[in-house]
User: Fold these one by one.
Assistant:
Number 1:
Amino acid sequence: MGIAGAKTRLAEGFPRARKAEAGSNLWRPQIGGTTMIVTILYYGMAAFIAVLLIWNFMKSRKLQDEILYVIVLVPFVLRLLRLK
Amino acid sequence: MNPTVFRKAAAAGLGGILCILAGADFHRSRNLREAVVAGPGVTRIGSLGDYLPGLRGGINDSHVYVLEGREPGGSVLVLGGTHPEEPAGRLAGWILAENGIVEKGRLFVVITANRSASTVTRPGGAYPPDYAIATPWGEKTFRMGDRWSNPLDQWPDPEVYSHYPTRQQLAYVDIRNLNRTFPGRPDGTLTEKTSFAVMELIRRENIDIVIDLHEAELQYPVISAIVTHPKGQELAALAAMIISGTEGFSIGVEYSPEALRGLSHREIGDHSDAISLLLEAPQPFLDATRGRTTRDLLLTGRDEFVVRAGRRGLLFEKIDESGWPIDIRVGRHCSTILSLLEIWSEDEPERAVVLSGVPRYAEVIEKGTGAFLRDPDTAPADRIVYE
């Protein structure tokens, strides 16, 4: 079908959308505070794990373990500092 | 010095160096400033926060560039950066904002719909943190992004993401995927709020057509296509025919499935008067079979392993040693947008949107994407904003 033939179909126009139904529950407000509380708890858990890692690092007597603790600690520090 | 103290200090020093180097890189990447020189056609610059106060001043209070014509007509919204890891969408939006002139109707352009996602890259994906486009006046650097909002802005993810309002269960990580949270809700997560703000823009501004710009891996079956809501099938089909016959590249049509919820091409059409379309261009950078994930791969689309996958019949789009350069991908988006507007305007003259000043596919390939990016150093200060 050439362009001219295709364009004759345009005479029918493009169908319009239906409006969002009035009275629908689409815009019902959700509980917002819970999300913030959960986020705070997760940062708290990250801090707790970081403290555990530092504590184990201080107790360790093997260089290999100390390096491991430090490397594992890096992402927790970056998250707590809100860098990554 | 006590050997134990020395050993621990050395290990701690190693960790400190890692933190400093990595942290500095992440901070620089998250805060990279990207200048937009509002072109002559931009009559005002708003933001998504204008449509949802809960976003105002936050990371996803993204700019909305409004180009208004002298004559009244229809309204079209172009969304770039829904997935910032797909740079052709943002770059096409940049070209529209910096060059477009609307003679009739209105054009709304959001260059970075999910700004949070543009400040992070894929964990474990080895993405480069940024990329640069060559321009006549030097290199312009852009943030590389991810598909999902930055966990610094929205965390933690649930075990299972239950889409609002359909309650369809999706992958947990897609609660941070802007293209899975439409239509959104005003008191939801950051990403849901962003979707809702876009929906409010569409409803309040009486948008006729929404065009969401994306790229896809070649192993993904929905590629090189216009994905259309049922309301837009005729428009998309005619555009695909005309583009494939006149623009120098082929593009297909895919129909928005009802079974998968949260996507712009489905939910925008279902929850507003607008026709919702989504454009996909090929981006080998996203393919799982790729080799090294470099800036070169991002901008040239050349990868021998993706080519090998193609030879084994594993891909849904052709690829050879010439790859899929960024200019081709950006040019495809530009021409497709222009064609859609032209066809729409011819059929709906009362709701026409007449746009000029934007290059087509052939011109973008000939001159390069950078030829259409303006130099902020020479632009009036009141015309410069930062993404």
Number 2:
Amino acid sequence: MRVHIKKGLNLRSGSIPDNTISAIKQARTCALLGRDYPGSRLQVVADEGTPVKAGEPVLCDRRRPEILFTSPVSGTVTAAHRGARRKLISLEITSDGKGDSIQFDIPASLDHDNIQRLMLQSGLWATLRSRPFGHIPTPGRNPKALLVTAIDTQPLAPDPAVIISKYNNEFSCGLKTLCDLGIASVFLCKSVKADLKFDDSCRAEVVEFDGRHPAGLVGTMIHRLCPIGFNNEEVWHMEYQDVISLGHMISTSRPWFERVISLAGPAVKNPRLISVPLGAGIDDITDGELVDISARVISGSVLSGHTAFGHEASLGQRHRQVTAIFNTDSTQSNGSPRTLFNAGIGDEADALIPTTDLDAVAPPGILAVPLLRALLVGDVERARDLGALELVEEDLALLSYTCPSKTDYGPLLRDLLEQMYKEGLSARG
Amino acid sequence: MEAGPYIRSTNSIERIRVLRLLALLPVLIAATGNTGYQYLLALADDGGKGADGWLERFLLVDKIDFASPGLLDVIVSGLIHLLPVFAMALFSAGVWEWIFSEKRNRRFDVGVVYTALLFTLLMPPGATFFHIAFGISFAMVFAHGIFGGEGKSFLNPALVAVAVVQISFPSALTNHPLWTGLNGYAGTKNLALYDQQISNGTVWSEFEWWDAFFGTTQGLMGTTSVLAVLAGAAVLIYGRIASWRLLVGQLFGVIVVAAIANKMGGGILDMPWYWHLVMGSFAFAAVFIATDPSTSSSTNTGRWVQGFLTGALVVFIRVVNPSHPDSVIPALLLVSMLVPLIDHIVVWFNIRWRDLRHD
């Protein structure tokens, strides 16, 4: 099946990363970030000072304690940083450089229960996400579909085909395992241009996406393949490198604790793909790589990444790129250019002017301006009816980029999603 | 927690404002030229007798060569009609915007320049200061200020200002002598639209279609030259401020209703669609007022519907209602008020479609 996305926008910011994967860059510290797991209340299992091996659980979800979050390196838990209401901001693990890791017992027969248990134990369950809401799915639920995303259209993102071709066997194995998870339909979403070689004996349906940026986002895929209704329906999705990790675990009994990321952006000396440990400290990744030491380093893309700063200066769990851009003082805090007329009044948001470019970059099937208006006034039900259940923050990044009012719609959507989650609004009475 | 996007498009309200002013530039040039040209024609026709307005006496009466005018004469005569109207409109709009920005503690909205300019271009050369101040004041309060400024009102303030003047002083805009700016001059060569006495299609043959297209006819200052308006439209569409769907929709609306009227036949009903496009202030309002992004439909389907309705209503009112010969302002006002309903229906269909695709 082939899906062509007509709308969208490809941003160019800096040179495309080189497609050869550099050798692993070790990190002194790694961290698990609270912001990567919306909807989970994280509880520290391994307190500060505890020595851990790679693959050993360090966090769990307070409400669903079977969901574990594991350490990506062997070393010592050095700090648990907490923010408002004692919410975990990050759990820092200092690597001892030994690379010891836990071995998981792989049962002979991989049926649904075994796979689920294995994924929960190894922390790979926490790489799954569900829509609506973008939370970690609750084990035992029966989603409508599972999407394996092997396409990345973010600006300066790594080419999944390069990485999958290097870890061919692991990817096939992981995909096969996911197919056995007992989910009604499994889709493998890839780019039209990518020529993926994998064992196609499994039942995953390959869907090719073609087009500009939102083409590679999960919201787009859900819209085209398995729209989410109001009957508590769920769609799960998993990203290709996490599938490689799963395959790696099935074949070698330990998960893959590295990720291949693209290090790119205008402030990077040598844009390329590198292997780094999961959750690696940004300082370790960008050490000696930046043109300008004061550059702003972003975990993720310029569109939907996060600033890697302070206690959150690590690679995000779902981020496959580190982007460095120059810090400039020519923009205000709200991002709009400083001109004669708005100097000093930057805090006041401009009105939403519904120009046609908003429709041109909206997620497919979404009425951009009515949805943004619902978000601005906090109308939960209208936002839900207009398709907010299919979206998370990253789907609105292009709209925030384009909108002349310079409003950030991502956080507004997140607030509304959490409200819908609490009030059980994903089902209509 | 700070999250992306870390780069922003260059799209901003400032950019929209600058591009809109840029789009009005060709219209301003055409307006200045044609207003001066029409004034000098009237002056020549009248033998200079009508030049007894205070402006003429103050500035021109001896210096201007109306018998064989040069380019400078044309420009100066144009500017003495355009600038006072603009100055008065800008002053009135500025005062109200200043009052609101002070009282409401928000920034002074420089978009009033655009509003004043649009209003000026929709005025006849002989508009009086009282009419201007009245129209602009009403619009700046009730179609701009009380809603919170630019992008928050559901009606375009310039449109409301012109509508208020037209409704309150019906003779102010359609009275022929005002059209040349020459006080008391009645020898107007009028477009058939305003005569309503068309029989067998001959009246408008007094003009070539191209005259109306290039804008060498009498009319409201900015609206005569369709060519200049098209240049402005190109800027607005290229800058992605105006929606091309709205413009094409209006074209469809005009063609369809004009075709129906032609079938029925008789009098002004016979006027073909390509004449409707170049007559009156339709082209100007279609490009600069109907497509105002903050008061037009915010969905692509809605833009088609709104465009079609606007074009259709303009022709419909023109051919059936003699008291609104131009009909552009009432038609736009009606459709503007319908826009929230159009959007509401489009949203309703979208929600319904979302529901249905799961069953």
